[in-house]
Hints:
Layout: H1 16-35, E1 39-40, E2 46-48, H2 49-52, E3 65-67, E4 73-76, H3 81-90, E5 99-108, E6 120-129, H4 134-151, E7 157-162, H5 171-178, H6 180-194, H7 202-208, H8 214-225, E8 235-237, E9 251-256, E10 267-271, E11 286-292, H9 293-299
Parallel strand pairs: 1-5, 7-8
Antiparallel strand pairs: 2-4, 3-4, 5-6, 6-11, 7-9, 9-10, 10-11
Amino acid sequence: MQKGPQTPKGFRDIAPALAKKRNGVIGKISQVLEENGFVPLETPTIEFAETLEGKYGEEEKLIYKFTDRGGRNLALRYDLTIPLARYVANNMGVLSPTFSRYQVGQIFRGENPQKGRWRESTQFDFDTVGSLDPQEDAKVIAVAIKAAKVVGLEKAQMATNDRENFRGLPVEVIRAIDKIYKIGKDGAKKELADKGFSDKVSVIDDIEKSEPSENLNRIFKILEDKYSLKQDSDFFFDPTLARGLDYYTGSIFELKPEGRPEDQSVGGGGRYDNLIGMFAGREIAAVGFSFGIDRIVELL
């Protein structure tokens, strides 16, 4: 029997049954977000390459770039956050001082495909822009936990930390700490020694013993008092969690589907007060979260 053309590596067709399941998950999350004051937004799949360049650190090499017939340098969007930053900068006179939006869309990354990761995948982001209030950090965390449980991830818990806990540490040291659940504590220490940071090996033990920051404790109290969530049941403190070294500035968090620190995350986020304003020429506070729809659907 003759077969049709194959899809490129890392890209796939989504059959009706799976598409229906995905749509169901997206619909349930959307409902939770709209009930909590987030409004939908859509942005183009293609941006000017210069809009994306210089925003992702070492991962910039994964951006799909091309030149169109008019000689313009374009790129497929790498995530939904940079398009949000561009949108906010272009609509500052129209948007309310605090703007909460959600967006579902395809993103493209030229990475090696693996279980739950494709070169084209679906992200579901929601963010609040324009407020430094830890109430917004807590709201994002609480809404993400609620949405996860609504779609069927009953055991999900949010791992949380604060970038303040890594203040003064070299990036290489933070990256090693962030790998503890992948390569083990001894593996992380070996990596530091191999990279010439033998004097920093003891930092790993110190970090594991650290306590939540003052900011994180405020967020925890809001989660408990306002949203009736419980520490070590709905969320927990993970001092080794690092994520997003290039732009997170405060609270950081990852959603663990079985509530274990070593679980592969099904979403993550945090506060990033230096990113949204890069196109506006001034600092604009922001905090948000991104669900990986493909990973969630695989687990259900």
